[in-house]
Amino acid sequence: xxxxxxxxxxxxxxxxxxxxxxxxxxxxxxxxxxxxxxxxxxxxxxxxxxxxxxxxxxxxxxxxxxxxxxxxxxxxxxxxxxxxxxxxxxxxxxxxxxxxxxxxxxxxxxxxxxxxxxxxxxxxxxxxxxxxxxxxxxxxxxxxxxxxxxxxxxxxxxx
Length: 159
Fold this sequence. Notes:
With about 160 residues, the protein is α+β, with helices and mostly antiparallel strands. It has 4 helices and 5 strands; from the N terminus they run E-H-H-H-H-E-E-E-E.
């Protein structure tokens, strides 16, 4: 993981992609969002979605999974180079969560994150605060998911 000083506004990282199958849509929905259009293909076809639709929470959860995996990759690469690893703090939350288009069975969503703002924490000067726009784009090039996430990032040389 990177330190606050190593990050710039506009930096973008591709996080990877995920294909939403009918099985994984139904499995997630059965446990976390058991609405009929997430569980039943016919009900999905008759809904506004026009097909078996992934829960928005499922779409967002995959983004989180890929963000964590990306951070783990970055940490492993830093260790391999003999560098100190920045251990990020918790997230105080997110804003502007949008499920823009339905994600249907068979869709593959490519996720990315782009830094929108950086500032030093006034109360905790050893930390910076990062805001990044996390997005998901379908195989058709359509934006389907977006949220503005906030994270505490350690500063390298803070007193």
